[in-house]
């Protein structure tokens, strides 16, 4: 196991301990929906961790709808009963790290939906952002440089153009994990990256034409190699 993975595992352990302590705090103080939590500074001192650790744990609980942060006001318990909250926090603490196959399957399901919606709903400004991301990806590939992050920025621009904030949030949530796994498994070799330029261009043109059926089909073709790689890897184990 490399140092990056060890550090990630340690960060997850710290985050889970903070989430458990926040759960205890809510129960000990009998906090109800709408009640305010102590400040990040106070929890940092009380739990013996950094404020950035506290912030990451709060963001995770916000993602699952258990807390709500309001700028300049603080963090509040969301509108959910105590029993349901305790159960959901226990479930969150038991979540396992996603494996590569699960990430691939989730990403494909999300992107087939987001690209179709993007073709239907995209604005001219959002189309420009997709085109800029496409150019950034192509420039890196043609220089023979690693373009994993530019590839994902292209797909995130499509998710943003879908007009569905929940789908966009899910994409943002799994993106760092996808980058890590792409680099670890060396999925994007040179030949695949060159082919990716053409496929990205086809996806862009379908969105530009506002053709949802074509957009979905071009995205399916784009993911074919990645999907096959994932399952062939499983068969070799």
Write the layout of secondary structure elements.
Layout: H1 3-28, H2 40-47, H3 51-63, E1 67-70, E2 74-77, H4 82-93, H5 100-121, H6 124-142, H7 148-161, H8 165-185, H9 190-208, H10 212-236
Antiparallel strand pairs: 1-2
Helix pairs in contact: 1-3, 1-4, 2-3, 5-7, 5-8, 5-9, 5-10, 6-7, 6-9, 7-8, 9-10
Structure description:
This protein has 237 residues and is mainly alpha-helical. The chain folds into two domains: 3-93, Winged helix-like DNA-binding domain superfamily/Winged helix DNA-binding domain (Arc Repressor Mutant, subunit A); 100-236, Four Helix Bundle (Hemerythrin (Met), subunit A), CATH 1.20.120. The protein is 76% helix and 3% strand. The chain has helices spanning 3-28, 40-47, 51-63, 82-93, 100-121, 124-142, 148-161, 165-185, 190-208, 212-236; strands at residues 67-70, 74-77. The protein has a two-stranded antiparallel ribbon with strand order 1-2. A hairpin with a 3-residue loop joins β1 (67-70) and β2 (74-77). Mean pLDDT is 83; it is low at 1-7.
Task: Assign the CATH topology of the largest domain.
Answer: Four Helix Bundle (Hemerythrin (Met), subunit A)
Level-1 CATH class name of the largest domain: Mainly Alpha
Report the strand count.
2
The profile of the biggest β sheet is: 2 strands, antiparallel
Write the CATH homologous superfamily of the largest domain.
GntR ligand-binding domain-like
Instruction: Provide the succession of SSEs.
Output: HHHEEHHHHHHH
Work out the helix count. Answer: 10
DSSP helix fraction:
over 70%
Q: Residue ranges: pLDDT <50 for 5 or more in a row?
A: 1-7
Arrangement of strands in the largest sheet? 1-2
Named at the architecture level, the CATH assignment of the largest domain is: Up-down Bundle
Share in β-strands? under 5%
**What's the N-to-C terminus distance?**
19 Å
Q: What's the domain count? A: 2
Question: Which class do the helix and strand fractions yield?
Answer: mainly alpha
Mean pLDDT over all positions: 83
Name the shape in a single word: elongated
What does the radius of gyration come to?
A: 21 Å
């Amino acid at each position: 196991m490399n140092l990056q993975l060890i550090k990630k595992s340690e960060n997850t352990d710290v985050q889970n301990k903070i989430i458990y302590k926040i759960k205890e705090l809510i129960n000990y103080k009998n906090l109800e929906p709408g009640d305010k939590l102590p400040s990040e500074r106070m929890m940092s001192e009380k739990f013996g961790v950094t404020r950035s650790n506290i912030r990451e744990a709060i963001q995770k609980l916000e993602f699952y709808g258990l807390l709500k942060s309001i700028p300049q006001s603080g963090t509040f318990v969301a509108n959910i009963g105590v029993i349901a909250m305790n159960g959901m926090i226990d479930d969150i603490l038991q979540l396992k790290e996603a494996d590569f196959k699960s990430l691939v399957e989730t990403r494909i399901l999300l992107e087939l939906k987001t690209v179709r919606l993007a073709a239907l709903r995209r604005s001219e400004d959002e189309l420009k952002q997709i085109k800029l991301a496409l150019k950034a990806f192509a420039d890196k590939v043609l220089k023979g440089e690693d373009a994993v992050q530019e590839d994902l920025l292209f797909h995130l621009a499509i998710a943003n153009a879908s007009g569905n904030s929940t789908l966009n949030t899910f994409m943002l949530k799994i993106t760092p994990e996808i980058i890590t796994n792409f680099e670890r498994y060396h999925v994007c070799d040179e030949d695949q990256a060159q082919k990716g330029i053409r496929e990205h261009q086809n996806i862009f043109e379908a969105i530009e034409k506002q053709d949802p059926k074509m957009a979905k089909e071009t995205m399916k073709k784009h993911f074919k190699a990645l999907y096959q790689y994932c399952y062939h890897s499983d068969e070799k184990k």
